[in-house]
## 1
Amino acid sequence: MLDAAFFRRWMTTTAASVDREAARLTELDSAIGDADHGSNLQRGFTAVAAALEKEPPTTPGAVLALAGRQLISTVGGASGPLYGTLLRRTGKALGDAPEVSGEDLARALGEGVAAVGRLGGARAGDKTMLDALIPAAEALGTSFAAGREAAEAGALATVPMRARKGRASYLGERSVGHQDPGATSAALLIDALARTAREAA
Ligand code: ADP
Ligand code: MG
């Protein structure tokens, strides 16, 4: 079972990984966006880590709700409200249970991913974070490792896609041939989850 400490480690592992990969995320965003995705998420997850340390929530749902609120209030770009909604909605679906199973988390994340789709109006194949998140949430029902692989494959699969949502969609055909920054950061989020689970085992 996964407790609040597990979810706090997931978030701090994500923060470290975003720090490490910030330059790469910004470089991807410079090709098809406005070169701020790395710094946006760095600011957001630094705030998440600080808030979790200041007043550590005691349930998995509350950890994700707090993280989501921080992302919404600190990230200016489109990705802030979208990731914030993902985590808040996932946290809400987990309710106030002190511990949840991997299957509970996979199901809750599926609800979070659906909420991102409703908020941003994007679907699979539009070259957004959803192209990593949708397959990941589905594969997490099997295992954390499967979820990680699906997210990574989903991010790579955005390269030949033409962007239909977000800033990259303004480029039309010229968005083809570049990996989507948000799908790339979504793969980092799921990779951090899989690593946290492996370390806890
Ligand atoms: P901004 O585009 O405002 O500069 P970021 O650079 O932080 O924000 O984030 C860009 C990423 O956000 C994109 O790579 C894409 O994955 C994601 N994104 C943008 N619009 C949408 C949308 N409508 N639905 C889902 N994801 C989106
Ligand atoms: Mg940007």
## 2
Amino acid sequence: MRLSRSLIPTLKEIPAEAQIVSHRLMLRAGMVRQTASGIYAWLPAGLRVLQKISAIVRQEQNAAGVQELLMPTIQSADLWRESGRYDVYGKEMLRITDRHERELLYGPTNEEMITALVRDSVKTYRDLPQSLYHIQWKFRDEGRPRFGVLRGREFLMKDAYSFDLDYEGAVLSYRRMMLAYMRTFQRLGVRAIPMVADTGPIGGDLSHEFHVLAPTGESQVFYDSAFEDLDLNSANLDYENPDDMAAFFQRATNIYAATDEKHDSEAWAKIPADRKREGRGIEVGQIFYFGPKYSQAMGFSLAGPDGSKIIPEMGSYGIGVSRLVGAIIEASHDDAGIIWPDAVAPFSVALLNLKPGDAACDAMCEDIYRQFGDDILYDDRSERAGAKFAEADLMGHPWQIIVGPRGAAAGMVELKRRASGERFELPRAAALAKLQPGAA
Ligand code: ATP
Ligand code: MG
């Protein structure tokens, strides 16, 4: 994309309405604009991040055998009356009446809808297990929308739902999803620790929240630093092998990690002092086993092989896709701006032409720009060099290719790595080779 023709309205001033760094940086880097309280328009650079995160989430869900579908944002109130949640959900639900006086709502979550869809689609116990997900906008009329996209009212969520014939199957689905989440967050370039979480009125111990550590997080979290050394991703784990999933789950949950709601001071006391970590976390995902709660209430049952009645066991699994954009920035920035992990940067590379109009600079930049495809932002504006450097640092592109007149005449460019600040003077071809996927 050419910056001269892009809608990336960066700001020099620090926006007064933004209390935390990710919100400030997202506004300053021209990624989003608020259009109503807790509701954001995603401008081109912001949308690219959202799309890159969504793509990784999607790939890892698919790899775990979860099927993508797309459910609507608008749901009927009657569906929620079936589960009994219409009246108890409270003010967070945005309720709508259509021209025929029918009651609708903007979905805050989709347990009811998916339960009805699967109930009405499967015929025999042989059709189970099923697990399905979508990546769709949600609306929750939060009492205090704040911190930009971290707590919005309209936000993008990946929500998945599993249906199994028995408890054992449901636990397997849960473990698979936990592994898929660990892999997803690792690929996104962010550390998210699974913490034992409150299961609410349903009880049981099968819920985990995934927290990204950041001082601005809303939850108090406690964990054993052994988590930092745990590598759960490299092992050759097969989603289809229940023993693999059990071994993985055992390792992932053996190490102490809990939010304050589930903090166990006795277990905590047993951890060596030098391994205790306490801080703030941002919840970027939650996985939940809740058994037959919705299937039972909504009349979803199947005849088993021996004719007995089976009420499917369910779980639900969310990832806050739009919240992740802010959470990643909270975890990865400096005074100059955002430091994007490679996988989610709006553009992997910024190409800075320090002297547009100079024949050698223009020729070299046009050439690099053409070669690179879609993942490069070409700063072709006639701004001073200092302003270009500052904006590239603010926007946080993992790499900058800097082309000045002296270097261009000699066939050289400067390459800058945003995260480390390292700079390399290289012949053009060597610089581009360094940027090929995997070479970084
Ligand atoms: P919170 O405790 O932060 O209000 P929640 O536990 O109510 O979140 P879930 O129902 O678990 O949220 O939703 C799944 C995921 O969706 C959360 O882990 C979070 O990442 C994201 N999410 C929830 N509410 C919001 C919101 N208001 N804005 C942005 N993301 C959200
Ligand atoms: Mg939650």
